[in-house]
Specification:
By secondary structure, this protein is mainly α. About 60% of the residues lie in helices and about 0% in strands. The chain contains 18 helices and no strands. Helix 4 runs antiparallel to helix 5 and helix 15 packs across helix 17. The radius of gyration is 27 Å and the shape is elongated. It starts with 9 loop residues before the first helix and ends in an 8-residue tail after the last helix.
Length: about 400
């Protein structure tokens, strides 16, 4: 049960609200009535809906139009059926409408919502958030957020927005730091749902930072908006070719061909060369490459197979391909160190190879999750790690 503070002095209410940092209405100060309590609970539900839409839009770099329209309709219906009189509550609701209008490209309506909301309660964090997003450029939005944070360093909503803006400006390390700080602030306010909702975005930025660093001028990030999609065999080969030297000896002769011919030629020749095959099938004579070439999406085990093949084959030391299974069989050991990849699995060598070499990880420290589907960015982080100049010869 939330505790509500009662303020009957309008002047004191305005002064407190102007200074208040707000992540949720449960931290804010407003006149308590039974009706306002009901309105408060309803608006908090809209807050939860908004942050889910916002996180999705940030992660996918596109507006979920249907969800935006649906929430706007819900708010409009709610407003027409509810007697809204408390300025703070009206301001918060109008801020959500303005943010949704902004997402939908309805600039005039977003401006109108901001003007009304700011007139009612300019110190509300979501009113401030809307003001930041209405700036002409991301740089201006970031400056606005940082200026307000100088006076209100515990404003979790604006700190989170600062992280999103730094991500959009490709300053990934700073973005992660800001988002982590926002999570700490939200947690302290008893709002763990923000961490839950925005954590996939935070993890995505972490992977981007692992691959590209924080060079905002890097040409390598030109295609990053598509990296959240699931990995296919074609994109696996394309990402490897464009970002590593793992298959460099296969790519030089295809430079004069168009992209479609280049990709098809690479796929064919890599298959013949055994890059999609199990370690026990060096030249794909047993056709084990069908496991990968027939799949619509790549899994973690498929990625391990390809990366271990590419890493070892580039060195020329093909004995490395099956070094783990041979050691286990010769010693009579039957228990795998990876719970969900047994010793007799045809990709046992590949999995142990990429894990021991620290190209890939055991997500929970015990299991490899071999059948989990992989995104392009996840694969790229592993491929970058595998793109090492040397390999052990023993």
């Amino acid at each position: 049960m939330r505790n509500y503070r009662i303020l009957r002095s309008a002047g004191l209410l305005a002064a407190l609200l102007l200074l208040a940092s707000c992540a949720s209405l449960q931290q804010d100060v407003y006149t308590f009535t039974v009706e306002n309590s009901y309105i408060f609970s309803s608006i908090e539900e809209y807050e939860q809906s908004f942050i889910k839409i916002d996180a999705q839009a940030q992660l996918e770099n596109s507006v979920p139009t249907e969800e935006v329209s649906g929430l706007l309709s819900d708010i409009a219906a709610y407003k027409s059926s509810t007697n809204l009189t408390e300025p703070l509550l009206i301001a918060r609701l109008r801020a959500f409408e303005g943010l949704l209008y902004k997402m939908a490209g309805r600039g005039r309506e977003a401006d109108a919502a901001y003007t009304e909301a700011r007139g009612l309660q300019k110190g509300d964090c979501y009113v401030q958030l809307l003001g930041c997003r209405l700036k002409k450029t991301r740089e201006e939005s970031l400056s606005e957020a940082e200026a307000m944070l100088k006076y209100d360093s515990k404003n979790a909503v604006l700190e989170l927005e600062r992280g999103k803006l730094l991500y959009q400006l490709k300053q990934y390390d700073k973005a992660i730091s800001a988002i982590d700080n926002a999570f700490i602030l939200f947690d302290a306010e008893g709002l763990p749902q923000y961490r839950t909702v925005y954590n996939p975005l935070r993890n995505y930025i972490w992977d981007l930072n692992s691959v590209y660093g924080s060079d905002s001028d890097s040409d390598a990030v030109h295609n990053m908006t598509d990296l959240q999609g699931n990995l296919t065999l074609e994109s696996l080969v394309s990402l490897t070719m464009e970002n590593t030297s793992l298959i460099e000896n296969y790519t030089a002769s295809y430079q004069k061909k168009n992209q479609k011919q280049k990709n098809q030629s690479l796929l064919t020749n890599l298959e013949k060369g055994g890059y999609f095959s199990a370690a026990s099938d060096l030249s794909n004579e047993a056709g084990t490459s069908a496991y990968m070439t027939g799949a619509s999406e790549m899994t973690r085990k498929m990625c391990a197979r390809f990366l271990w093949n590419a890493y070892v084959r580039r060195s020329g030391n093909l004995k490395m391909l099956s070094r783990y299974s041979e050691k286990y069989h010769s010693s009579g050991r039957t228990k795998s160190p990876v719970n969900d990849v047994p010793v007799d699995d045809e990709d046992f060598d590949a999995v142990l190879g990429v894990v021991e070499s620290e190209f890939m990880e055991l997500p929970d420290g015990k299991n490899f999750s071999p059948d989990s589907v992989v995104t392009k960015l996840q694969f790229l982080t592993w491929a970058k790690k595998a793109d090492k100049p040397n390999i052990q010869k023993n």
